[in-house]
Design a protein that fits this description.
The chain is an alpha+beta fold. It folds into two domains: 36 residues; 43 residues. It is built from two helices and two strands. Strands 1-2 form a two-stranded antiparallel sheet. Helix 1 crosses helix 2. The radius of gyration is 17 Å and the shape is elongated. The chain starts with a helix and ends with a helix.
Length: 80
């Protein structure tokens, strides 16, 4: 039972590291424009005043949640 959980944790860790590396690669240079849309989705709430800024990335969080859930679902299908 614990060996399955260990495999899932290791796989999830490798996926997170891979995503981090991809973000670092895409962040540098002209390829950073690929992710400009990510913080400005329709449900992302931004309130700016003269000395106050509030940002709540609801749309980005929902999209990221769906993508991670789909990735974990597929990972679970392939491991079993």
């Amino acid at each position: 039972m614990f060996s399955d959980a260990g495999k899932i944790v290791v796989a999830a860790g490798l996926i997170i590291v891979g995503c981090g590396l991809l973000l670092m690669i895409f962040e540098s240079g002209a390829s950073s424009r690929w992710f400009n849309w990510f913080g400005s989705l329709p449900l992302d709430i931004t309130i700016e005043k003269s000395n106050f800024r509030f940002y709540f990335p609801l749309g980005s969080s929902l999209l990221l949640s769906v993508l991670v859930s789909l990735l974990l679902f597929l990972l679970n299908k392939f491991i079993r």
